[in-house]
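User: Design a sequence. Structure:
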Protein backbone atom coordinates (compact mmCIF):
# COMPACT_ATOMS: atom_id res chain seq x y z
CA UNK A 1 0.00 0.00 0.00
CA UNK A 2 1.46 3.36 -1.03
CA UNK A 3 1.75 6.31 1.32
CA UNK A 4 -0.85 8.18 -0.73
CA UNK A 5 -3.35 5.34 -0.52
CA UNK A 6 -2.67 4.96 3.21
CA UNK A 7 -3.42 8.66 3.70
CA UNK A 8 -6.65 8.31 1.71
CA UNK A 9 -7.71 5.33 3.83
CA UNK A 10 -6.88 7.22 7.02
CA UNK A 11 -9.04 10.21 6.05
CA UNK A 12 -11.81 7.90 4.87
CA UNK A 13 -11.81 6.03 8.20
CA UNK A 14 -12.06 9.34 10.07
CA UNK A 15 -15.08 10.33 7.99
CA UNK A 16 -16.73 6.95 8.46
CA UNK A 17 -16.21 7.13 12.22
CA UNK A 18 -17.71 10.63 12.39
CA UNK A 19 -20.66 9.45 10.31
CA UNK A 20 -21.17 6.52 12.67
CA UNK A 21 -21.20 8.91 15.65
CA UNK A 22 -24.14 10.76 14.08
CA UNK A 23 -26.03 7.52 13.53
CA UNK A 24 -25.27 6.26 17.05
CA UNK A 25 -26.39 9.56 18.55
CA UNK A 26 -29.60 9.54 16.56
CA UNK A 27 -30.52 5.95 17.44
CA UNK A 28 -29.33 6.14 21.05
CA UNK A 29 -26.48 3.63 20.71
CA UNK A 30 -24.83 4.73 23.92
CA UNK A 31 -23.05 3.34 26.97
CA UNK A 32 -24.66 4.25 30.28
CA UNK A 33 -22.43 3.92 33.38
CA UNK A 34 -23.17 0.98 35.70
CA UNK A 35 -21.45 -0.66 38.67
CA UNK A 36 -18.88 -2.33 36.39
CA UNK A 37 -18.06 0.87 34.50
CA UNK A 38 -14.89 2.89 34.91
CA UNK A 39 -16.54 5.99 33.44
CA UNK A 40 -19.21 8.32 34.78
CA UNK A 41 -20.73 9.91 31.67
CA UNK A 42 -22.95 8.63 28.86
CA UNK A 43 -20.74 7.89 25.84
CA UNK A 44 -21.33 6.66 22.28
CA UNK A 45 -20.89 2.91 22.04
CA UNK A 46 -19.64 0.90 19.08
CA UNK A 47 -16.91 3.15 17.69
CA UNK A 48 -14.86 0.00 17.17
CA UNK A 49 -17.11 -0.87 14.24
CA UNK A 50 -14.47 0.91 12.17
CA UNK A 51 -12.22 -2.18 12.49
CA UNK A 52 -14.65 -4.40 10.60
CA UNK A 53 -15.54 -1.70 8.08
CA UNK A 54 -11.82 -1.17 7.37
CA UNK A 55 -11.28 -4.90 6.74
CA UNK A 56 -14.26 -4.95 4.38
CA UNK A 57 -12.92 -1.97 2.43
CA UNK A 58 -9.53 -3.64 2.18
CA UNK A 59 -11.20 -6.84 0.98
CA UNK A 60 -12.94 -5.05 -1.89
CA UNK A 61 -9.95 -2.83 -2.70
CA UNK A 62 -7.28 -5.55 -2.84
CA UNK A 63 -8.36 -8.53 -4.97
CA UNK A 64 -10.95 -9.96 -2.54
CA UNK A 65 -8.30 -11.62 -0.39
CA UNK A 66 -9.13 -13.91 2.56
CA UNK A 67 -12.88 -14.28 1.89
CA UNK A 68 -13.53 -16.83 4.67
CA UNK A 69 -11.77 -14.68 7.27
CA UNK A 70 -13.77 -11.63 6.16
CA UNK A 71 -17.03 -13.62 6.27
CA UNK A 72 -16.19 -14.82 9.78
CA UNK A 73 -15.39 -11.27 10.83
CA UNK A 74 -18.71 -10.00 9.47
CA UNK A 75 -20.60 -12.73 11.35
CA UNK A 76 -18.89 -12.20 14.69
CA UNK A 77 -18.99 -8.40 14.40
CA UNK A 78 -22.65 -8.38 13.41
CA UNK A 79 -23.75 -10.44 16.40
CA UNK A 80 -21.55 -8.31 18.65
CA UNK A 81 -23.03 -5.07 17.29
CA UNK A 82 -26.53 -6.47 17.77
CA UNK A 83 -25.56 -7.34 21.35
CA UNK A 84 -24.38 -3.74 21.86
CA UNK A 85 -27.89 -2.57 20.97
CA UNK A 86 -29.95 -5.30 22.65
CA UNK A 87 -28.70 -8.31 24.67
CA UNK A 88 -28.38 -11.52 22.66
CA UNK A 89 -28.69 -14.98 24.19
CA UNK A 90 -25.37 -16.54 25.20
CA UNK A 91 -26.15 -19.73 23.27
CA UNK A 92 -26.72 -17.91 19.96
CA UNK A 93 -23.65 -15.73 20.50
CA UNK A 94 -21.45 -18.77 21.18
CA UNK A 95 -22.76 -20.48 18.03
CA UNK A 96 -21.85 -17.41 15.98
CA UNK A 97 -18.40 -17.24 17.58
CA UNK A 98 -17.80 -20.92 16.83
CA UNK A 99 -18.90 -20.48 13.21
CA UNK A 100 -16.71 -17.40 12.75
CA UNK A 101 -13.64 -19.09 14.23
CA UNK A 102 -14.29 -22.15 12.04
CA UNK A 103 -14.19 -19.92 8.96
CA UNK A 104 -10.97 -18.31 10.21
CA UNK A 105 -9.35 -21.71 10.76
CA UNK A 106 -10.45 -22.86 7.31
CA UNK A 107 -8.91 -19.73 5.78
CA UNK A 108 -5.48 -20.41 7.30
CA UNK A 109 -5.60 -24.18 6.68
CA UNK A 110 -5.67 -25.15 10.33
CA UNK A 111 -8.08 -28.06 9.76
CA UNK A 112 -5.23 -29.95 8.11
CA UNK A 113 -3.65 -30.40 11.54
CA UNK A 114 -4.55 -33.20 14.01
CA UNK A 115 -7.96 -32.98 15.66
CA UNK A 116 -6.55 -32.46 19.15
CA UNK A 117 -4.56 -29.42 17.99
CA UNK A 118 -7.61 -27.94 16.28
CA UNK A 119 -9.69 -28.54 19.42
CA UNK A 120 -7.12 -26.77 21.59
CA UNK A 121 -6.98 -23.94 19.06
CA UNK A 122 -10.77 -23.52 19.24
CA UNK A 123 -10.69 -23.25 23.03
CA UNK A 124 -7.83 -20.77 22.95
CA UNK A 125 -9.35 -18.63 20.17
CA UNK A 126 -12.73 -18.35 21.91
CA UNK A 127 -10.93 -17.68 25.19
CA UNK A 128 -8.79 -14.91 23.67
CA UNK A 129 -11.81 -13.25 22.08
CA UNK A 130 -13.61 -13.15 25.42
CA UNK A 131 -10.48 -12.06 27.30
CA UNK A 132 -9.92 -9.09 24.99
CA UNK A 133 -13.61 -8.22 25.33
CA UNK A 134 -13.35 -8.34 29.15
CA UNK A 135 -10.22 -6.16 29.07
CA UNK A 136 -12.07 -3.42 27.20
CA UNK A 137 -13.02 -1.45 30.30
CA UNK A 138 -11.13 1.84 30.32
CA UNK A 139 -10.42 4.52 27.74
CA UNK A 140 -7.60 3.74 25.36
CA UNK A 141 -6.68 0.24 26.51
CA UNK A 142 -8.16 -1.72 23.60
CA UNK A 143 -6.83 0.77 21.05
CA UNK A 144 -3.25 1.21 22.17
CA UNK A 145 -2.73 -2.43 23.16
CA UNK A 146 -4.01 -3.55 19.76
CA UNK A 147 -1.83 -0.90 18.11
CA UNK A 148 1.31 -2.33 19.76
CA UNK A 149 0.33 -5.88 18.79
CA UNK A 150 -0.38 -4.94 15.18
CA UNK A 151 2.85 -2.95 14.86
CA UNK A 152 4.77 -5.98 16.14
CA UNK A 153 3.01 -8.20 13.62
CA UNK A 154 3.89 -5.71 10.88
CA UNK A 155 7.54 -5.81 11.95
CA UNK A 156 7.49 -9.62 11.91
CA UNK A 157 5.93 -9.64 8.44
CA UNK A 158 8.58 -7.21 7.20
CA UNK A 159 11.69 -8.61 8.87
CA UNK A 160 11.16 -12.08 10.32
CA UNK A 161 8.44 -14.03 8.50
CA UNK A 162 7.76 -12.14 5.24
CA UNK A 163 4.43 -12.80 3.59
CA UNK A 164 2.65 -14.66 6.41
CA UNK A 165 -0.29 -12.35 5.69
CA UNK A 166 -1.12 -9.48 3.34
CA UNK A 167 0.80 -6.37 4.36
CA UNK A 168 -2.03 -4.24 2.99
CA UNK A 169 -4.40 -5.92 5.44
CA UNK A 170 -2.01 -5.25 8.32
CA UNK A 171 -1.59 -1.59 7.38
CA UNK A 172 -5.36 -1.19 7.05
CA UNK A 173 -5.89 -2.61 10.54
CA UNK A 174 -3.24 -0.27 11.96
CA UNK A 175 -4.87 2.74 10.30
CA UNK A 176 -8.31 1.78 11.65
CA UNK A 177 -6.94 1.40 15.19
CA UNK A 178 -5.17 4.76 14.86
CA UNK A 179 -8.46 6.47 14.00
CA UNK A 180 -10.24 4.75 16.88
CA UNK A 181 -7.52 5.82 19.32
CA UNK A 182 -7.97 9.45 18.28
CA UNK A 183 -11.49 9.33 19.68
CA UNK A 184 -10.93 6.90 22.55
CA UNK A 185 -7.44 7.41 23.99
CA UNK A 186 -8.55 10.37 26.11
CA UNK A 187 -9.49 11.13 29.68
CA UNK A 188 -13.03 11.74 28.39
CA UNK A 189 -13.56 9.44 25.42
CA UNK A 190 -15.71 10.44 22.47
CA UNK A 191 -16.65 6.80 21.88
CA UNK A 192 -16.14 3.33 23.29
CA UNK A 193 -15.26 0.29 21.19
CA UNK A 194 -18.32 -1.70 22.25
CA UNK A 195 -18.47 -5.46 21.81
CA UNK A 196 -18.34 -4.94 18.05
CA UNK A 197 -14.96 -3.26 18.48
CA UNK A 198 -13.31 -5.41 21.14
CA UNK A 199 -14.54 -8.70 19.65
CA UNK A 200 -13.82 -7.49 16.11
CA UNK A 201 -10.22 -6.47 16.79
CA UNK A 202 -9.69 -9.67 18.78
CA UNK A 203 -10.82 -11.71 15.78
CA UNK A 204 -8.56 -9.71 13.47
CA UNK A 205 -5.50 -10.16 15.70
CA UNK A 206 -6.20 -13.88 16.11
CA UNK A 207 -6.28 -14.23 12.32
CA UNK A 208 -2.92 -12.53 11.99
CA UNK A 209 -1.37 -14.49 14.86
CA UNK A 210 -2.67 -17.88 13.71
CA UNK A 211 -1.44 -17.12 10.19
CA UNK A 212 1.97 -16.29 11.63
CA UNK A 213 2.09 -19.42 13.78
CA UNK A 214 1.07 -21.65 10.86
CA UNK A 215 3.69 -20.05 8.58
CA UNK A 216 6.49 -20.13 11.16
CA UNK A 217 5.55 -23.23 13.14
CA UNK A 218 6.06 -21.28 16.39
CA UNK A 219 3.30 -21.16 19.00
CA UNK A 220 5.45 -18.77 21.04
CA UNK A 221 3.85 -15.85 19.19
CA UNK A 222 0.89 -16.23 21.54
CA UNK A 223 3.06 -14.13 23.88
CA UNK A 224 2.08 -11.10 21.80
CA UNK A 225 -0.97 -11.04 24.10
CA UNK A 226 0.85 -12.06 27.29
CA UNK A 227 -0.12 -9.16 29.54
CA UNK A 228 -3.82 -9.46 28.70
CA UNK A 229 -3.53 -13.16 29.47
CA UNK A 230 -1.88 -12.55 32.84
CA UNK A 231 -4.53 -10.04 33.88
CA UNK A 232 -7.44 -12.18 32.68
CA UNK A 233 -6.28 -15.53 34.08
CA UNK A 234 -5.19 -14.14 37.45
CA UNK A 235 -8.51 -12.32 37.78
CA UNK A 236 -10.46 -15.51 37.04
CA UNK A 237 -8.43 -17.43 39.60
CA UNK A 238 -8.93 -14.80 42.31
CA UNK A 239 -12.67 -14.68 41.59
CA UNK A 240 -12.89 -18.46 41.88
CA UNK A 241 -11.04 -18.30 45.19
CA UNK A 242 -13.60 -15.73 46.38
CA UNK A 243 -16.37 -18.09 45.15
CA UNK A 244 -17.75 -15.50 42.75
CA UNK A 245 -19.60 -16.22 39.53
CA UNK A 246 -16.93 -15.58 36.90
CA UNK A 247 -19.60 -14.99 34.24
CA UNK A 248 -21.10 -12.00 36.06
CA UNK A 249 -19.97 -8.42 35.37
CA UNK A 250 -17.28 -7.17 37.75
CA UNK A 251 -14.47 -4.67 38.33
CA UNK A 252 -11.80 -7.11 39.52
CA UNK A 253 -9.20 -6.75 36.77
CA UNK A 254 -5.89 -5.21 37.73
CA UNK A 255 -6.28 -2.40 35.20
CA UNK A 256 -9.65 -1.57 36.77
CA UNK A 257 -8.03 -1.40 40.19
CA UNK A 258 -5.41 1.01 38.90
CA UNK A 259 -8.00 3.22 37.20
CA UNK A 260 -10.77 3.09 39.80
CA UNK A 261 -9.12 2.64 43.20
CA UNK A 262 -5.73 4.21 42.53
CA UNK A 263 -7.31 6.94 40.37
CA UNK A 264 -4.62 6.73 37.72
CA UNK A 265 -5.88 8.40 34.51
CA UNK A 266 -7.17 5.90 31.98
CA UNK A 267 -4.71 6.90 29.22
CA UNK A 268 -1.80 6.39 31.62
CA UNK A 269 -2.95 2.90 32.60
CA UNK A 270 -3.50 2.02 28.94
CA UNK A 271 -0.08 3.37 27.98
CA UNK A 272 1.53 1.39 30.80
CA UNK A 273 -0.01 -1.87 29.58
CA UNK A 274 1.06 -1.08 26.01
CA UNK A 275 4.66 -0.32 26.98
CA UNK A 276 4.99 -3.48 29.08
CA UNK A 277 3.58 -5.61 26.24
CA UNK A 278 5.93 -3.88 23.81
CA UNK A 279 8.88 -4.89 26.01
CA UNK A 280 7.62 -8.49 26.00
CA UNK A 281 7.29 -8.34 22.22
CA UNK A 282 10.81 -6.97 21.78
CA UNK A 283 12.26 -9.74 23.93
CA UNK A 284 10.28 -12.35 22.00
CA UNK A 285 11.57 -11.06 18.65
CA UNK A 286 15.18 -10.62 19.75
CA UNK A 287 15.62 -13.81 21.80
CA UNK A 288 13.42 -16.20 19.78
CA UNK A 289 13.05 -18.47 22.83
CA UNK A 290 12.46 -22.20 22.62
CA UNK A 291 9.18 -23.63 23.90
CA UNK A 292 10.85 -24.61 27.18
CA UNK A 293 12.22 -21.13 27.78
CA UNK A 294 8.89 -19.64 26.71
CA UNK A 295 7.01 -21.68 29.31
CA UNK A 296 9.60 -20.74 31.94
CA UNK A 297 9.25 -17.06 31.03
CA UNK A 298 5.46 -17.20 31.20
CA UNK A 299 5.54 -18.86 34.63
CA UNK A 300 7.99 -16.29 35.98
CA UNK A 301 6.00 -13.43 34.48
CA UNK A 302 2.85 -14.84 36.03
CA UNK A 303 4.45 -15.08 39.46
CA UNK A 304 5.75 -11.51 39.23
CA UNK A 305 2.36 -10.24 38.10
CA UNK A 306 0.54 -11.98 40.94
CA UNK A 307 3.13 -10.68 43.43
CA UNK A 308 2.56 -7.16 42.10
CA UNK A 309 -1.19 -7.55 42.53
CA UNK A 310 -0.77 -8.70 46.12
CA UNK A 311 1.61 -5.82 46.84
CA UNK A 312 -0.75 -3.17 45.46
CA UNK A 313 -4.23 -4.61 46.00
CA UNK A 314 -3.63 -6.54 49.20
CA UNK A 315 -4.53 -10.03 50.34
CA UNK A 316 -7.96 -9.04 51.67
CA UNK A 317 -9.18 -7.56 48.38
CA UNK A 318 -7.89 -10.43 46.26
CA UNK A 319 -8.85 -13.42 48.40
CA UNK A 320 -11.79 -12.49 50.62
CA UNK A 321 -15.36 -12.18 49.36
CA UNK A 322 -17.35 -8.99 49.79
CA UNK A 323 -14.43 -6.65 49.20
CA UNK A 324 -15.11 -5.60 45.62
CA UNK A 325 -16.53 -2.16 44.81
CA UNK A 326 -20.20 -2.24 44.01
CA UNK A 327 -20.53 0.95 41.99
CA UNK A 328 -18.58 3.20 39.66
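Assistant: Done.
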Amino acid sequence: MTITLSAIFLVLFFLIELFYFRIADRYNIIDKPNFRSSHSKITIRGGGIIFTIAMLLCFFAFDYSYPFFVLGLVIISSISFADDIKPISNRFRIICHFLAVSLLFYQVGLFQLPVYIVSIAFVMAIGIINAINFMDGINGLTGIYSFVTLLTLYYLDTNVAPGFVSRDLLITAILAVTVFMFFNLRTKAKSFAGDVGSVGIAFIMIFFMVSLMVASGKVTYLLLLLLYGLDTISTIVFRLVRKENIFEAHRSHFYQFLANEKRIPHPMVALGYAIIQLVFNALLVMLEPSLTWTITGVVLSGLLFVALRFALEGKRRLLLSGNQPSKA
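The longest strand covers residues 30-31. The chain is about 70% helix and 0% strand.
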